[in-house]
Design a protein that fits this description.
The protein contains 2 helices and no strands. By secondary structure, it is mostly helical.
Length: 61
């Protein structure tokens, strides 16, 4: 019986590892998007002309 439990535990561990890696990739992608949005927000806030700044942000998206 302990062998069956060990096999199940190993399989569950692999699934958790794969899920963890998938989540880490998703988090990294979201961090990148958030960074880009933050940079765009700063450019808009620093701009004297909102329309050109918004066009630049849209063009760089």
């Amino acid at each position: 019986m302990s062998l069956l439990r060990t096999d199940a535990t190993v399989g569950e561990s692999r699934m958790l590892t794969e899920e963890t890696e998938t989540l880490r990739r998703q988090i990294d992608a979201l961090k990148g998007r958030l960074c880009g949005l933050s940079e765009a927000s700063v450019r808009i806030a620093e701009s004297d002309y909102v329309d050109p700044a918004l066009r630049e942000v849209v063009n760089s998206a």
